[in-house]
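Narrative progress, year one. The postdoctoral researcher (J.K.) led the effort to move from monomer predictions toward full complexes, under supervision of the PI. The following entry was the first complex the group processed end to end, covering 1361 residues in total.
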Amino acid sequence: MEIQWSLVLFTAVAGCGTWASVGVAVDELRGLTERTNRLASAVALVLAVVGGIASVTHLSHPDRIMAVLGHPTPGIFLEALLIGLFILAEVVYLILLARGVSAGVRKAVAVAAAVIGVVFSFASGYSYMMEARPTWNTIALPFGYLGFAAASGLALYLLLAALKKERDEALKLAGIETVVGGVLAIASGLAFGFASGAAMGDSAAVFWVSLACGGVVPAVCGWLACSKPASTLALGVVAFAGGIAGSVAFRAVMWMVGTAVANYFGIAL
Amino acid sequence: MTQPTISRRSFVKSAAALGAACGLGVAVSDDLVHVDAAHADTGGDVKIVKTACRACIASCAVLAHVKNGRVIKIEGNPESPMSRGGLCAKGMAGIQALYHPNRNKYPMRRVGERGQNQWERITWDEAITEIATKLIEIDEKYGSECVAVSTGGGGNPHFSNVKRFGEAINTPNVWEPGCAQCYLPRMGASQLSNGMGKPNNLSFADSNGWDYYFTDSPVDSIVLWGTDPSNSSVATGGRALAELRAREKGLKTVVIDPRMTMDAAKADVWLPIRPGTDAALLMAWTKWIIDNEKYDKDFCTTWTNMPYLVNPETRLTLKPTECGLEGTEKDYVVWDPVENKPVVLEYPMNEGIEPPLFGSYEIDGKQYPTGGQLLKESVEEFTLAKAAEICWLDEGQIEKALEIYTTGQSGIMQGVAIDQYEQSQQCALGALNLEYLMGNVQRPGSMLQSFKLCPARDQIPNTPRFMKKEKILKRLGVQEHKGLLSWDMAFIPAVFKAMKDGDPYQIHAWIERSGNKHVMLGNATCLDEIVPNLDFICHVFMYPTAFSVLCADMLLPSAEWLETNLVIPQLNAVVIRQAVTHLFETVEEGLIWTQIVQKMAEMGNVHAQEAFTAEGTNGIPMYKNEYEKQKLHLDKLDMTWEEAAEKGVFEWCTEEEYRTYYVYESIDEATGKPKGFGTPSKKCEVYCESNTILGRTGFPWSQCFEEKALVLEPASKDYEPLCYYKEPAESPLTDDEYPLVLTEGRLPMYHHGTLRNIPYLREIYPVPEMWIHPDDAEKYGVEDGQWCTIASRRGETHGKARVTTAIAKGVIYQERFWAPELLDSDPERAYKVMNINVLTKNDEPYNPEYGTYTLRGFQVKVTPDAAAPEGVWTEPEQFEPWMPQPSDPTEEVFEYGA
Amino acid sequence: MAHNCIVVNLDRCTGCYSCEITCKMENDVALGEYWNKMLQRGPFGEYPNMVRYPLPTMCQQCADAPCVHVCPTGASYRDGNNVVLIDREKCIGCKYCMMACPYGVRDWNKASQTVEKCTLCGHLTANGELPACVKSCSAGARFYGDLDDPNSDVSQELAKYDEADIHELPNVGNNPCTKYIMTSMHGEWMEGVE
């Protein structure tokens, strides 16, 4: 079926942002970085907003969007709720940062934002699990959404940390997180690829590219960043570029293999 | 949900651009009509009018919803005894046809060169006067036979009117491309061999097989031979079969068709026959039935001429006078097996004598075979194995089909397929003989019936005896093909020869009423050479076609079915078609004809004057107006038009009164004997000597003013009394250059060449599918969905491949088609681009009896195209310019009359 | 609770496309858009054991309708008679329901930019009439009514046939109400057969 780019961008961009906040939360707990969190949270906020706007461009009648509130069901309502809460949490976090409020409250808010973000990245894939489309109807799909978001978001955090010239120790941690993200993407991606058949079918090429870019590249770059913190900036750029490209490609693959039980009218979405 | 919201955009201004020259236009609006924006839905009540469709010949009863004078909705009328409330896609499209933006709206006269598509609007008075003047001129200068008149089956026609018009203007050269290629052979063979009256034959789509519309009919099985009621008579015949199949006892069916039609899909046996070989299969069936003694011996003995002795010298039944017995020329001779001697037949059968059906008997040293014996001998070689080989069929499946046909009550429906090649009459006679052998005549559950005749009529009979002998003898081509006289029509190839070469005389004018002759005629490109030789061509139709643009000098706008009136007998009911609205200056075709004749009469043409007198016209003078027309159709029905129209659908007798069986056994009061059949022998003529007599004399169809039975010179060869098989002239057995056999068919959403401009129908079926078997597709490199070129010895055209096992191997199927969207830009391609009739044959060999030319069962080759043909619309949205533009009703052009 | 739906008897259906165009005329469905579409299936198999049948498709009025379940605004809903409908005014055009429909029998109305589908001609049935496609079906092959009412047209028609001759489109838990009757007259039902 046709790739719905609005939705691809929504979940890839917003997912990247929400997982950047995981980097922030981890660091809040470890307390290694000094300068990155403000930037990373701001970027995460921007990405969540941009992603949200991208999702709205998918709608023909966004003016009626408030009706969503009147009809709470899983899927779109939950995604909207989560992304809204995430944005709210990030705003609060940034305010806390600016006002220099106590670390305890800040940590709590950062962790809350990260948890919401992680759930969001999962939920944005979970919405597509439906009986009508057997290739989507696997738990590997939301994990894939989560995994690729993790790789791209944590790679982004690595990049931002390098930009902010954090200490080696902090960069190493971010490197390890990126490796974890990459591994999540590889594992969940493979699971989806084989569960849905995307790994073998007509879309196999794009699938394997998504896995290489979105999983392998961040993992390798993260690993290298741990051993050569001096090269982190370059590695961060590559990891992030690969991560976001892979995340977009993974979502595109989902649409490419998303055949319904039947499409009797032959109408393209 | 509210009322269907058809966009109501246009409103015709009465003061539209008189005299402005313009093209006919495929665009939204032509230059003749001003369009107002948004003609608002201003409220008003919805009136439901009972009328009847004429998108095809089935004439299904319809309920038309009318609001503020505009038709806003059509639905089936459940009161109809045949369609039972059903209505097919064609009928449903009635609104889109009625309000089509490109309707012919006013009479138009060509300006500039022929084919340049430049026109000016003229008044009806100008148009009628101009035509009348031309016809009188031609009559006086060259003779009235130099005018040709043609019609066709598509688009609200009225067949007998055209003949009446020809008779009134004194030309014998009336013709239509159906006739010898559609229905006449099946009807003619039935008239000759059983004489049960005109509409009584094996064509289900032409309103026969009436018993099958009643689910209590004891029919067990039906053979659909080259017919697909689900496509050709969707809501009547197709529905009847659906009802029969749905009975507790069901209905077994055999379908003989190269295509796996929707009827074939439901059949117990599908025989995908090679086109053009039906006669071989018919003969094999005949042989199998005789060999296995499955025939109805009693019926064959008493009610067919099988036991009649035949004189090998005359090839006719033996006369008593020819073998030394006492009797007259009207008597017949049978063999008395007990006394071992010939006896003169005492109708219906001599008491105590059971004459043999088969065998040859000696009288005075000469051998006289029975009719049955000659039938048996004629099919001698046709074993099932041989038929399987000729017809590309499986022997076991043929036998299975025969077992179905010969077990319980069966009937054969024979379709147009057999009317479309050289062996038309042979196949029609062959199928009838199967029914006679099985005694499937006027029995409950049989196809052939003689049910009670309706006192009203949809066709006003023509008056062939109005024409003088001198004119009748000038009818082109019928000396050789006398079967055409059954319909009082001329032989098309002879008419075209006269138009093209002036042989035997030049035809100067052509008045044509039908959709698109370029799409319906065999080898249609032959018109290119013919048309320049004609002085005047008038086209009468509801919308412009390729013929209008390429050939016509004058265009007359005829009426859609929603604008016309007719009385239609359907089983024991009458269905009324009544005008629901009237648009622009359209006129029902019958009224156009009478206006021309009235004008000629007014201008002093004596023959035209006589057309309005009872004496001149055998008691049926030409009507002058709608009122007189309605009265002629109501005929013996004791009812005014208003009363009939008010009822819409009503019974004229009960079902029990209507379904009269075994009429041939009922006693004729005049003779005290059974009525029998309408043949000279009053029997079903298995040995159809009437066919031979037709060829020798023209009897029973040759007639003129002076003589009730006008005896003509014999045809160059005898017409054969029995079915025989002849390999098609172009044959896959010998053709290396064109290896594939072509067949055509019917589609449920189109009728003949009509409706190709209806958006919702073109959306369903935008371009013709070319069915090709996967094995052939592989052989010729054709992919599913790919455009292809199909070529024959006459030309080439295109179709979109559908690679499917629903077509026999070695056979290509494509339906007739044209592209109205190309009319303005390239009218020649409009008819050539995807029209199977640029491939078909209209040259020899012809069927001896009717001159049938070959539209199916000839050779083609297929090559894949690199691209789709330019300009042909294939996507639904492309048809948007043709969406309906409803407009308000206008006054009828001519006086009602009462 | 009522389960109103269309039942199609494919032994009767001749594949004439009347239902498709009737629906378009009645509901003013634009060119290129469908609420009701006639498909041709097959031929499958080898001669003489071949299967070919028509398949008219439309909203199947699923008992567990995924479209209603996923709709974020309640635009896809069940009315008082339990009929699955779409409120055009509430549709935001997210097409989630089109993704969730297992059959692709929802239409995207380009003009209104909303999802639409078969309404079972509620504007007609409210007045005691039949849906347009049922009323004018050329072959008398379409039936309308409540599956739960043994006296309804659909129940009466279904009652004439064995279980084995009654089919539904592949059911992935949505439980379509629409049934297709097809006996050995045609051969094997092939929907959902790989």
